[in-house]
Amino acid sequence: MRQELMSLPKTLAEDVARNLVMVAKLLDDEPERAYQYSRVALRLASRVAAVREAAGFASYAVGKYAEALAEFRAARRMTGNSELWPVMADCERGMGRPERALAMAGEPEVQKLDRAGQVEMRMVAAGARRDMGQADAAVVTLQSPELASNSIQPWTARLRYAYADALLVVGREDEAREWFAKALEADQSGSTDASDRLAELDGVEFVDALDPEEAADGDARQPVEEPEAEESKVAELLSGEDMVESESESEPESDEPEADDAGADGAQGIEPVAEATSEGQAAAPDEDSDGR
């Protein structure tokens, strides 16, 4: 990413970097705010692959799957790699096209993925099977050497969880409980709610010990990040504003996302904006004739 940003003028690169840092910081807990920062970064430097990828993940996090797919396609076109293939397939699912996601699982691009990417693609394919009402096929799709392995990898908990959930859908409750327990055992980062699913299967109910007044007080106490920690990630935002716009670029460059292969039924593009010249003046971009 740093090398990509170095291709930009210094001030512009700093502004883009600040917004990208905020996207990464807010994506899990405040996806709507992360999305807004990503749109600023996109307006500033739409021809940087890292910006398109970040915009894609921010759109994905807020359920804007057509928009996310367009950004992922643009990033893939710029870099030539296939690592975004699984999340692109999941965008197809989000847009209500599981058959296309399933077709992507059989494409040659999958063979170019590393082991983690192939596991991710398997989970997406299983989800597509379930979307299509093929619950038993989803169970079979998830059965793999990675699932049977006792080694703990970053994707192990999620794979086991997906398998447990698929088993539960087809009525194999005892096996599902076993695999939820295995998922919990591997889930060191708390990326799944396997413990809650286990409790639900065991008939355990959790009761909030706090009275409503205490709960309200607890909700009001928000953690405050130390200024030093924030400054170690990014410099203070320009002019104290939430969103950082470049002072050196009046109207930043743009690169319209690639159109949907199937005719963009539901895909949303990015509105073209002016392209910045080296002197800091804006020039109108060329018009492109292509339009769960």
UniProtKB/TrEMBL annotation:
Residues 211-292 are annotated as: Disordered. It comes from the Bacteria. InterPro entries: TPR-like_helical_dom_sf. Residues 218-234 have a biased composition (Basic and acidic residues). SUPFAM superfamilies: TPR-like (SSF48452). Residues 242-263 have a biased composition (Acidic residues). This is Tetratricopeptide (TPR) repeat protein.
